[in-house]
Design goal:
single chain, alpha/beta, FAD/NAD(P)-binding domain, D-Amino Acid Oxidase, Chain A, domain 2, 7-stranded mixed β-sheet, 15 helices, 23% strand, globular
């Protein structure tokens, strides 16, 4: 909700002034607060609930996200939380495994990578393969919040932001109104700042007032924690595929705990009636590696299945004077590829750099930075993560014959090794900020999928195979071009 502030309201509530008010203390909020606080800006972070969050996503940080985290000076936030190094992925298609390691970043790409993450010194990662990390989301968030508390000029406040406040004469956003309870008493306060940053997550309260784009739900994840699961490839994310089943994502979040996320398209079976559990037993468990099945079966018996929507939201321009959307409030993609936190941290890093030396009182200057620089510069990395996540999800959750041709083609392409693995995995990892590489590899996969289908069908079915080849290429265009277009606007 947006309200106009008048003198009577101001006198009736406590007035506090800051340089920046940040709404939300998940991933992007504390990271940005630390960066701005270190610039000498007075920052207030308002979070509805400062207790440890408990989510079933936001648990896998790609190497590009780790690099951004370290550049922000927050590398210690992944320490002492039982985090597990992630060396790559194991893609399992109908029982056949293909291990995809994060490769060393070649020197010709390293310059682009260092440009993206530079902070006085280059992030030299040429001597070793980059690594991701997986963990319990809540523990990571609590470390980020503590880092914000420990930063000079940064204040964390537990309260609910009920409104953003607009100047009635200029229409510019000038702060927020909050609500909290102390000893049963209801307390309303106003906090004013020339810049308000809204990063209140997937279910953002204020997005609808400041974003021109709409959120769409592509599917849902049903999640469980597996105890002492025996994984085919420890320290790897596992993507389990089958031509007649939705994708399953498995990764470690601790020394003895493993997250499993099962994709569900369409209406989610009822959890309360046991229909969801039955769905998981019949449609998921048979496709899991044998070593995982005992822990999965035990988790089904002992735990309540948790469900969350998988949403897509393209980023709109931040052209509102005095207010910026950031994180999932601005931009979302399917979590299958684990790119959300990498995007959020990269955006926090980029925004803090672009605002260095900018007079925040000059809302026109800030707005110019957001529309002419931030909106477009973030796309060097973020567009890749966004498009790749949605395109791969379409292939991995193949629900048509032509998508299944592309799905098998993608798996066979990975089996070729070399740049057929290295480039896609670097794109996935967030360390290859070259969008044309994504476009090129996607259509090479589509062509290769058609060739593999022709070989499987044989000479006798060549006419049908040629038609399928053309249809699969058309399908590839239908899959990727809407997301490319969304990133060009």
């Amino acid at each position: 909700m947006v309200t106009q502030q008048n003198a009577a309201e101001t006198s009736a509530t406590q007035t506090n002034e800051y340089d920046v008010v940040i709404v939300g203390a998940g991933i992007a909020g504390p990271a940005l607060a630390v960066a701005l606080g270190n610039q000498g800006r007075k920052v207030l972070v308002v979070e509805r609930d400062l207790s440890e969050p408990d989510r079933i996503v936001g648990e896998l940080l790609q190497p590009g996200g780790v690099a951004a985290l370290k550049t922000l000076g927050l590398g210690s936030c992944i320490e002492d939380i039982d985090a597990i190094p992630c060396q790559g992925y194991n893609v399992i298609y109908s029982g056949e495994e293909c291990v995809l390691k994060y490769p060393k970043v070649p020197r010709d790409i390293q310059q682009d990578y260092n440009e993206l993450y530079r902070s006085g010194k280059s992030a030299d990662i040429s001597n070793e393969a980059p690594r991701g990390v997986s963990f319990h989301h809540g523990r990571f968030v609590m470390n980020l919040r503590q880092a914000a508390r420990d930063t000079p000029n940064v204040t964390l406040l537990e309260a609910t932001v009920t409104e953003v406040v607009k100047n009635p004469y200029t229409g510019h956003i000038i702060g927020v109104k909050t609500f909290s309870k102390t000893g049963g008493a209801k307390i309303y306060k106003h906090y004013f700042a020339p810049l308000t940053v809204v990063c209140d997550g997937t279910f953002s309260k204020f997005r609808k007032d400041f974003s021109t784009n709409k959120t769409s739900v592509r599917s849902h994840f049903a999640g469980l924690i597996l105890k002492d699961a025996v994984l085919p490839s420890p320290q790897h994310g596992h993507v389990i595929l089958s031509p007649n089943s939705c994708p399953v994502l498995v990764y470690q979040v601790g020394a003895r705990e493993t997250r499993i996320l099962c994709d569900i398209q369409g209406p989610v079976p009822s959890n309360s009636t046991g229909a969801l559990k039955e769905h998981m037993e019949k449609n998921v468990m048979p496709h899991l590696p044998k070593s995982i099945q005992p822990s999965f079966q035990a988790a089904l018996k002992e735990q309540t299945i948790r469900v969350m929507p998988n949403s897509f939201l393209s980023a709109s321009k931040n052209d509102h004077h005095g207010l910026i959307l950031l994180g999932d409030a601005l931009n979302m993609r399917h979590p299958l590829t684990g790119g959300g936190m990498t995007v959020a941290l990269n955006d926090a890093l980029l925004l803090s750099r672009l605002l260095t030396g900018v007079n925040l009182e000059d809302t026109y200057a800030v707005s110019s930075v957001m529309t002419s620089q931030f909106h477009w510069q973030r796309k060097h990395l973020d567009s890749i993560v966004n498009i790749l996540s949605m395109a791969l999800y379409s292939l991995f959750a193949a629900d048509s014959d032509y998508l299944r041709i592309l799905q098998l083609g993608c798996f066979n392409y990975f089996k070729l090794g070399g740049i057929c693995v290295d480039h896609p995995v670097m794109l996935l990892a967030g360390v290859l900020p070259r969008p044309m590489y994504l476009f090129t590899h996607f259509f090479v996969v589509a062509i290769y999928g058609g060739i593999c289908n022709m070989q499987a069908n044989g000479i006798a079915k060549l006419p049908a195979s040629l038609l399928q080849f053309v249809a699969s290429l058309v399908t590839a265009c239908i899959v990727i071009f809407p997301y490319i277009w969304s990133e060009l606007t």
